[in-house]
Amino acid sequence: MTDLSIEQAAAALARGGVIVYPTEAVWGIGCDADNRAAVMRLLAIKQRPMDKGVILIAASLEQFDGLIDWPALADERAEAVRASWPGPNTWAVPATAAVPDWIRGDHDSVAVRVTAHPQARALCQAHGRPIVSTSANLAGHPPAFQRDQLDRALLALSDGVCAGETGGLAAPTPIRLAATGEVLRA
């Protein structure tokens, strides 16, 4: 499997590629969130249904401009979300109409995170906008915390691996509902 630099990985994303890269806890697989064909390819690789939706990660809060419906949240809830970033905190936030169904799935919300992981953050910066971030494993299989745990079949279907290490968290980032703080995934 080809190791990609941040620049090569960003170029692959711009071409509609699907890449594997390290995140805070596990290896992720992602693509350009605006490219429907790339997202559908990623879902097919993972054998994941579209109705579940996917997480978007960004390098900064500004990369989510136009995607998060901040006025739909109470001020204190919006502030709690903003205060948790950058960091390993994923929030299901109200989505604007600009977020397509291939990202939201069957939800009115979109799961988002401003990552603090060095490679993931650099990748989002180089790409210039949010990217899809879901665990690099087949649906229903355990996530890969180490590179040597990555599924060879999944790797063969991707366009390369962004070099680096995961952030060492013991579990994937929690997902919480922005409106209430309720934990959706611990």
Give helix % range.
25-40%
Category by helix and strand content: alpha/beta
Oligomer: single chain
Largest sheet data: 8 strands, mixed
Into which percentage range does the β-strand content fall? 15-25%
Low-confidence stretches: none
Please, what is the average pLDDT? Answer: 96
List the secondary-structure elements in sequence, H or E: EHEEHEHEHEHEHEEE
Q: Tell me the number of strands.
A: 10
Provide the gyration radius in Å: 15 Å
Determine the number of helices (DSSP H or I, runs of at least 4 residues).
Answer: 6
Tell me the strand order in the biggest sheet.
2-3-7-4-6-5-9-10
Shape: globular
Distance between the termini: 32 Å
Write a concise keyword list for the protein shown above:
single chain; 186 residues; alpha/beta; 8-stranded mixed beta sheet; two-stranded parallel ribbon; 10 strands; globular
Topology diagram in text:
Elements: E1 3-4, H1 6-14, E2 19-22, E3 27-30, H2 36-46, E4 55-58, H3 75-83, E5 90-94, H4 101-104, E6 109-114, H5 118-127, E7 131-135, H6 152-157, E8 161-162, E9 175-177, E10 183-185
Parallel strand pairs: 1-8, 4-6, 5-9
Antiparallel strand pairs: 2-3, 3-7, 4-7, 5-6, 9-10
Helix pairs in contact: 1-5
Describe it:
By secondary structure, this protein is α/β, with parallel strands linked by helices. It contains six helices and ten strands. An eight-stranded mixed β-sheet has the order 2-3-7-4-6-5-9-10. The longest helix is centred in the N-terminal third of the chain and has 11 residues, at 36-46. The protein is globular and about 45 Å long. The relative contact order is 0.28. The model has no long low-confidence stretch (mean pLDDT 96).
